[in-house]
Design a protein that fits this description.
Length: 95
């Protein structure tokens, strides 16, 4: 089962009935935008009890196309990693 943005907004509107849905949507969009901006700037985003998002650089390398066995150069690129908190780990693994 996956959770979509609209599902999260429905749950938030049920939890906080005094807030308008458009306000919740705006808050949620600002929250995600700030995470994106921080990651773009190379900063680390820590959400206590949830986990940490951080940027990691993958070195350039020569890789191989498995279909043709041709060697292809892959340039250096940045990727986003997520490390879950101990609390989330225990919740997921039910310890």
């Amino acid at each position: 089962m996956s959770v979509s943005k609209s599902d999260l907004l429905k749950q938030l509107s049920q939890t906080y009935p005094n807030l308008l849905k458009k306000d919740l949507l705006k808050i949620f969009d600002i929250f995600l935008k700030e995470i994106k901006i921080a990651l773009k700037n190379g900063e680390r985003v820590e959400l206590r009890g949830w986990g940490v998002f951080y940027q990691k650089t993958q070195k350039s390398r020569n890789s191989r196309n498995p279909k043709t066995s041709e060697t292809v150069y892959t340039p250096e690129k940045k990727k986003i990693n997520f490390k879950m908190s101990k609390e989330l780990f225990e919740l997921v693994n039910e310890k």
